[in-house]
Amino acid sequence: MYQKYRYMEPLVQRYFLYLSYNGTAYCGWQIQPNGNSIQEELTKALSTILRTPIEVVGAGRTDTGVHAKRMIAHFDSPIKIENSTKFVTNLNSFLPADIAVEKIELVNNHSHARFDALSRKYEYHVITHKSPFHNNLAARISFPLDFDKMNEAAELLFEYEDFTSFSKLHTDVKTNNCKLMCARWESVGEEWVFTIEANRFLRNMVRAIVGTLFEVGKGTLSLDDFRAVIEAKDRCKAGHSVPACGLYLVDVTYPSFVFSVE
Length: 262
Fold this sequence. Notes:
Layout: E1 13-21, H1 38-50, E2 57-58, E3 67-77, H2 84-94, E4 99-106, E5 119-127, E6 139-140, H3 147-156, E7 180-188, E8 191-198, H4 205-218, H5 223-232, E9 247-253
Parallel strand pairs: 3-9, 5-6
Antiparallel strand pairs: 1-3, 1-4, 2-3, 5-8, 5-9, 7-8
Helix pairs in contact: 3-4
């Protein structure tokens, strides 16, 4: 004889959290033993509000001084959050001024902010003059750049998937292959902005690509030279990494099943 069981609500509810931050004062996204991080601030605030230890998992890691216009993270709540607007207001009151939560969204309990992401989009911001309003929010360059030529070089990136030349050395990833969806410089107000989107990024990849594009823009590298850098699969052949202050994570996309909640 079969025993009948009453339907039980799940013990936890998983939420996606959408936030932005100025990364100037932080050692990056990930919790570090000797520095304050975005993840640590969120963990403390959520644990205080929900009155239980909370783990926060981000869509990726941003390095020291890197900003985010939109980062996605997930956390599990021991209770269902009935009023998300009120919860976000309360959460923001516990966070420092340079971190802001936009919204939270109930998702499938198996959804993962990092592993379910389809793509991530970054911007790199450059200014060509001194400006107190861009301090630590854009990279200032003091040499002329040919942005049209840099866009020609950026087009070459789409011909490749192995970006070993732009990866930080001695990482533990299984592959250096990435599929690009966007890579282009545009003039936006006082700034030049490089937008790049891919299914995944290697550590330091964006800053290394931008640094190598600078060499093309200065005339140090030709388009053929830029192609040779990619094909060399050697970080030592590429340009220097540009300053972290100009880099922003701006969006993360997910498949629809992530938001399918029964």
